[in-house]
Amino acid sequence: MAYDPDNIFAKILRGEIPCNKVHEDEHVLAFHDINPLAPVHVLVIPKGAYESMNDFTAKASDAEIAAMFRAVGALARDLGIAAEGYRFLSNCGGHGHQEVPHFHVHLFGGRPLGRMLSRSAG
Ligand code: 5GP
Q1: What distance in angstroms lies between residue 98's CA and the mean position of ligand 1's atoms?
Q2: 107 within some domain
């Protein structure tokens, strides 16, 4: 599937719609999720046009990939959730229930987050 340049995160990157930014560097932007599921819920996205984890890991440079991973770790420390623990995840494609087709990592923390997935969902 071709990258959709009109997805909501592409518009945020272009400054066409606002975000509550918490970090920006050469390769990465991070901002608060508009509909937080935990006291800390931040989205970390590459500046490059990558649709998903599939696309990102196939096409991004080593520098872009390193920047994403380092940003997630640094943000956890900066946001004060590293000591007590946190979760980061990326939904990918249909089975992953990805809604916005620009690669992003969710960073959650600030309360006990429970099990990773519901067992009843199989
Ligand atoms: P996905 O299901 O694709 O992994 O998650 C998309 C996330 O983007 C959701 O948690 C949703 O709340 C968030 N989101 C959708 N639109 C916006 C927006 O315009 N601004 C911000 N900050 N987050 C958004």
Answers
A1: 10
A2: no
Ligand 1 close to Cβ of residue 90 (< 6 A) = no
**pLDDT tens, residue by residue, 12-36:** 999 999 999 999 999 999 999 999 9
86 lines ligand 1 (CB under 6 A): no
HEC sequence for 62-80: HHHHHHHHHHHHHHHHHCC
Q: What is the CATH number of the domain that holds 68?
A: 3.30.428.10
Following CA atoms 84, 33, 12, 103 in sequence, which dihedral angle do they give, to the nearest 10 degrees? 70
Residue 112 lies in a domain: no
pTM higher than 0.90, yes or no?
yes
